[in-house]
Amino acid sequence: MKTILITLITLGALSSIAQPTVTGKTSPATDIVITLPANSITLTGTATQRNNGHPILDTTWTKTSGPAATITHSSNRMTTTVTNLVVGTYVFKLTATDKQASATATVTVHVLPGTLPIELSSFTVVQDADGVKLSWRTNIESNNAYFVVQQSADGLQFTDIATVFSKAVHGNSNSPIDYSFAIFGVVVKADMSNLMLVMTLLGLIGLLNKLSKWKKGLLMAAVCMLLFSCSKSVQTPTATIKSKTQYRLKQVDLDGHFTYSAVKVL
Description:
The chain is α+β, with helices and mostly antiparallel strands. It has three domains: 19-112, Immunoglobulins (Immunoglobulin-like, Sandwich), CATH 2.60.40.10; 118-188 and 240-265, SOR catalytic domain (Immunoglobulin-like); 192-233. Helix content is 19%, strand content 44%. It has helices spanning 2-15, 192-207, 213-233, and strands spanning 21-26, 32-35, 41-48, 58-65, 70-71, 80-83, 88-97, 102-112, 118-128, 131-141, 144-152, 159-165, 177-184, 188-189, 241-242, 246-253, 258-260, 264-265. Helix 2 (192-207) packs antiparallel against helix 3. It is elongated, with a radius of gyration of 34 Å. The N and C termini lie far apart (87 Å).
């Protein structure tokens, strides 16, 4: 009975001992996305004792999942460097141990192939009753700073019309993110006046030679009134854009480098 009592007291004392407080992160973010050819990362953390007389005795960085990699200093270092990373997802763990307890913290590193800073899964441009709406989705973002929405009338000279900042934390994400930008109060002008003028002139060529002089005068007056009416019907607000307007996205990363999306024609 005495032995059982001593055992219970010992277990109770051990259970009351708090674990060390451990935090871990990559530099500069908690979890990070890097793109090849960059193939190394810095891991750093903290370990704080929770019980008097129980200082931290050891800290160890280990790889718990992911492809092969090299941890430069795995033991007794709060900060270490991991090299030889390849494409894939890694999880690294920092373990801190005192006299009687231990605690851990994990960080995740996503390594992407050396392609674009973003993976753009969709980009659409549509017109509705309110104007023009651009929508796009990214599947992955790496060091993405922002998007510049650009517009062109000829496909050669593009003008910046808006800046849309990345929604990803620190510009990095491996989950889908949706973006949109609306141009309100615009209408598409299809240049119907030019088409009407061509059709009218073709009709005149066939009729003028068959009419008397006074009938020719009446026909010309009617045509002028028709053209004037058509020109009034296609008047549009100041924000009018022509049909065949082209749009694209300029993606700018945190280092100032940029790439362009495919061009969409409205």
